[in-house]
Amino acid sequence: MKIAVTGKGGVGKSTITAALALLAARQGKKVLAIDADPDANLASALGVPRADQKTIVTIADHKRLIEERTGAKVQQYGQIFKLNPEVSDIADTYAYHHRGVALLVLGAVQGGGTGCACPENVLLRALVQDAVLRRDEVLFLDMEPGIEHLGRATARGVTTLVIVVEPGQRSIESYRRIAGMAGEIGLVNIAVIGNKVTSPEDEAMIISAVEHEPLVGLIPYSERFRANDRDGRSALDDLDEELCVLFADILTSLL
Questions:
Q1: What's the confidence (pLDDT) of residue 77?
Q2: Cα Rg for the chain, rounded, in angstroms?
Q3: DSSP 3-state of 56
């Protein structure tokens, strides 16, 4: 199963991705989590200690690896380089393992825009495609706001695109934009998770806005998530029973 998670920045997609990945690992599944958001927060949401986070290799910053695999120098334009670099060993070599989850951090391309035809971006896109189409783990892909990491070929391998929304107009507008883009590349299996719900009015707003896609869960706002983030603990730590059951139900729906 390959689950890609996206949504407007700040809606809690990294928290939700981490909780689901940890739950899947707890159930004995082989789990690969990829942080494809330039504002990388997945390691923190998984509860990786701050000191250890500094040891995680960020692929976009690994100049020697990029140049070796693409045959081109980093941040030098007008070059000829490999458009299909060998990447099948990178996750096994550079993933950080934590509580049963193998975490790979992609990072951001510095300069040129996220869509640049540069060696760094070619390698990152190839990594995502390899993870989605060829690897056999349960994959959780924590994406940047949007679906820029997913091309048409990669989209065919994604089991479900999960769009996280919160009760707000900007979040709903982002959901509609992402859902439209997904349809354009043939990614039709979309699910929605509502987050930070505080009232029946919040629930009603989300339910009304996402009537065209399955709503697999409504997660109430919880101070526990904020406290876990503050204290450097995982998204799953010390959740009350109701939230644990809710996340388990969402995972079952997705898998």
A1: 66
A2: 18
A3: coil
DSSP codes, 101-138:
EEEEE-----SS-TT--SHHHHHHHHHHHHHHHT--SE
d(CA 171, CA 168): 5
Question: Which residues face 32 on adjacent strands?
Answer: 102, 139
Backbone angles phi, psi at 216, to 5 degrees: -90, -5
Give the largest Cα separation in the chain, rounded. 56
Left, alpha or beta for 238 (phi > 0: left; psi -120 to 50: alpha)? left
| Dihedral, 129, 134, 138, 142 alpha carbons, nearest 10 | -10
Ranges in the chain, pLDDT < 70: 75-80, 109-117
For the question of whether the overall pTM of this predicted structure is more than 0.90, the answer is yes
How many CB atoms neighbour CB 102 within 10 A? 20
Sheet of 160-165, strand order:
96-98, 101-105, 31-36, 138-143, 2-7, 160-165, 190-197, 215-220
Cα dihedral value 43, 48, 54, 55, nearest 10: -100
| Three-state secondary structure call for residue 165 | strand
Residue (of 59, 27, 33, 63) closest to 48 by Cα position: 33
Structure tokens at 61: 């910053």
